[in-house]
């Protein structure tokens, strides 16, 4: 609870303690939310029954055991009856005489989110005055007038109390509404579980964090809401929370491999607070940072060694060149040539090490993956033996994605060439690409070769590990792995029934649409404003919004880059869309929209000022009119 909420609660409690009536507020589970001091004093309640979270059943049982409701019925029957009446959450008013002779009235009113507020008033004096009126109707005198004045004063106090209670109820409702609105706006699922594992509070964000799960989960057990697979991953941590231990953990969701972070925090009443956040993008960024740090460390370790080793190779090559010019035997010349070839191969290896540890920062740009894979097929086909085929199966969406096309193509070409070597003179290589949700792009390069050996599955991503003997450097797959990690993705090796597969996962990041300018959208209906905003964004525009003439004119005067105004004719408050058109800067294109009939005077006046779109209209109609205005 923050400082503001604490102050509000303190002021509310202090105010309620000043009134003469007893007051109690119970939630939908019949747990005490709030009571004033008079409630404890009137019924002489122990401290544990006026603490937040105290059960209504326990309070009724305590009162019934003391004979508060008479002795005609058993205590348990009386408790069950009162609890059943309370759970009905219906407005009620009643009066009764307590064992001590005090007469009280009880007035209850339900709350919007379940539960109720009850006010208990001592009306003993009022009843005494009424009885006196009935018993001494002929002797109304100073005493009757006094009691009448007392009754009038009591009524005035009661009216003031009711007003204060209504204000307290309004403030509580507003506080709850603000709290709910804030939790709904947060990009996380926030909820509370009762002691049995059922949700008694939740914002509507579970389906945003775990797609395919329901949004309305109040009353559901957590295992029902999450599903069996996800619940198995959180069950152990949830048990710890119910034992009083806070637990924060992460797991991969099955449907589209989102990375989810969950926090379970126990409360004092035996329940658990829950917070779940989708941290997939954070995890992808973390992978990039980790790989960048590893590469920096590798570069630092190898740069000096590579420099010295390069100098040694240069000296060796120079000496071998001199030896080659000498009058040596054929066998000696063969040894010199072999030494030179080995030294040059050492230089190539140094260059590849430099490539792995050098500054290779990805440069993402809008990339057509369909075109990239087709180019790769054309590029790689000439290097394949006649008996080796190459096919591409692409089910990626037809939209541009943010990738470094050079690095991705180089990595895939490396994998295709490895697959070629595995197939030998005949076989089939397949590149398949698809999305997983809207989280990952998965590209698989598979072949019909012998597959990976157990040792290769374990070590193939380690630098310098190779199964090609002297023909391999052992840096091909590590460089592909480095490329994928730098992009925030991952790489896995596996064997299939027909050969081997290398699976790349890259973050799915659609390229933003090309911006065609900034549109001021003026519409006072929130639902329609959202619909028109989506149309404009899909057409490639950036959008700012207003719902009145005053807001629109303030934006026009303060924002320099507005290239188009789209405004409803009728707007809330004073003024219309026509007033906006009359005050815009000369040359700024404006389009009006309306559901008014063509015979309406406002429609005719608007048509005289500029183009008018009749609601409802389609995105194509809007686009065509915008293009006409731009021309």
Task: Characterize the structure shown.
It is built from 20 helices and 22 strands. Helix 5 (124-135) packs antiparallel against helix 6. The longest helix is centred in the middle third of the chain and has 46 residues, at 280-325. It is elongated, with a radius of gyration of 39 Å. The two termini are 57 Å apart. The mean pLDDT is 78.
Offer a concise description of the structure.
By secondary structure, this protein is α+β, with helices and mostly antiparallel strands. It has 20 helices and 22 strands. α3 packs antiparallel against α4, α5 runs antiparallel to α6 and α13 packs antiparallel against α15.
What layout of secondary structure does this protein have?
Blueprint: H1 3-18, E1 22-26, E2 32-35, H2 37-43, H3 56-65, H4 75-87, E3 92-97, E4 103-110, E5 116-122, H5 124-135, H6 142-185, E6 189-193, E7 199-202, H7 206-209, H8 222-226, H9 228-242, E8 247-252, E9 259-266, E10 272-278, H10 280-325, H11 330-357, E11 365-367, H12 369-380, E12 387-394, E13 401-403, H13 405-423, E14 426-436, E15 440-447, H14 454-459, H15 476-486, E16 490-496, E17 499-507, E18 518-522, H16 526-538, E19 542-546, H17 549-558, E20 562-568, H18 577-583, E21 590-594, H19 601-609, E22 612-614, H20 619-630
Parallel strand pairs: 12-14, 18-19, 18-20, 20-21, 21-22
Antiparallel strand pairs: 1-2, 1-5, 3-4, 4-5, 6-7, 6-10, 8-9, 9-10, 11-13, 14-15, 15-17, 16-17
């Amino acid at each position: 609870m923050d400082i503001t909420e604490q102050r509000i609660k303190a002021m509310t409690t202090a105010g309620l303690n000043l009134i003469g009536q007893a007051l109690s507020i119970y939630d939908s589970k019949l747990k005490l939310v709030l009571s004033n001091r008079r409630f404890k004093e009137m019924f002489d309640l122990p401290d544990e029954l006026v603490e937040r979270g105290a059960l209504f059943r326990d309070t009724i049982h305590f009162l019934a055991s003391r004979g508060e409701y008479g002795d005609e019925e058993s205590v348990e029957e009386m408790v069950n009856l009162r609890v059943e009446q309370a759970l009905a959450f219906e407005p009620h008013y009643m009066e009764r005489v307590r064992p001590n002779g005090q007469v009280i009235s009880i007035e209850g009113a339900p709350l919007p989110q379940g539960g109720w507020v009850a006010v208990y008033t001592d009306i003993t004096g009022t009843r005494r005055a009424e009885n006196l009126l009935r018993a001494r109707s002929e002797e109304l005198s100073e005493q009757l007038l006094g009691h009448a004045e007392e009754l009038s004063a009591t009524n005035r106090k009661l009216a003031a109390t009711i007003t204060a209670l209504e204000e307290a109820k309004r403030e509580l409702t507003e506080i709850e509404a603000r709290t709910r609105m804030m939790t709904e706006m947060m990009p996380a699922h926030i909820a509370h579980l009762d002691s049995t594992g059922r949700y008694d509070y939740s914002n509507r964000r579970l389906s945003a964090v775990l797609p395919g799960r329901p949004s309305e989960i109040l009353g559901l057990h957590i295992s029902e809401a999450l599903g069996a697979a996800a619940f198995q991953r959180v069950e152990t941590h949830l048990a710890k929370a119910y034992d009083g231990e806070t637990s924060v953990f992460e797991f991969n969701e099955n449907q589209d491999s989102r990375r989810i972070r969950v926090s379970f925090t126990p409360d004092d009443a035996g329940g658990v607070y829950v917070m779940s956040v989708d941290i997939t993008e954070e995890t992808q960024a973390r992978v990039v940072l980790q790989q960048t740090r590893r590469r920096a460390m590798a570069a630092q370790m190898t740069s000096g060694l590579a420099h010295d080793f390069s100098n040694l190779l240069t000296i060796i090559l120079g000496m071998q060149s001199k030896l080659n010019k000498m009058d040596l035997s054929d066998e000696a010349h063969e040894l010199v040539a072999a030494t030179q070839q080995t030294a040059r191969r050492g230089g190539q290896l140094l260059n590849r090490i430099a490539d792995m540890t050098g500054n290779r920062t990805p440069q993402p740009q809008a990339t057509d993956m369909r075109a990239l894979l087709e180019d790769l097929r054309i590029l790689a086909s000439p290097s394949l033996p006649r008996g080796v085929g190459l096919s591409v199966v692409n089910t990626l969406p037809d939209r541009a994605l943010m990738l470094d096309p050079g690095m991705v193509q180089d990595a895939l070409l490396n994998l295709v060439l490895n697959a070629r070597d595995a197939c030998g003179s005949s076989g089939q290589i397949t590149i398949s690409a698809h999305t997983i949700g809207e989280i990952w792009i998965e590209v698989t390069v598979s072949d019909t070769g012998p597959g990976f050996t157990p040792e290769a599955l374990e070590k193939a991503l380690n630098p310098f590990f190779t199964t090609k003997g002297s023909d391999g450097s052992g840096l091909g797959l590590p460089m592909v792995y480095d490329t994928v990690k730098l992009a925030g993705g991952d790489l896995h090796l596996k064997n299939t029934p027909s050969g081997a597969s290398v699976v790349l996962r890259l973050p799915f990041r659609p390229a933003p649409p090309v911006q065609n300018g900034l549109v001021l959208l003026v519409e006072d209906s929130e639902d329609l404003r959202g619909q028109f905003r989506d149309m404009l964004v899909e057409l490639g525009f950036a959008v700012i919004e207003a719902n009145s003439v005053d807001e629109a004119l303030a934006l026009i005067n303060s924002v320099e880059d507005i290239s188009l105004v789209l405004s409803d004719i009728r707007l809330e408050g004073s003024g219309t869309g026509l007033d906006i058109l009359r005050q815009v800067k000369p040359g700024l294109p404006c389009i009006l929209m309306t559901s008014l009939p063509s015979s309406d005077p406002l429609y005719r006046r608007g048509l005289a000022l500029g183009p008018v779109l009749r609601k409802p209209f389609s995105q194509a109609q809007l686009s065509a009119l915008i293009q006409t205005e731009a021309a």
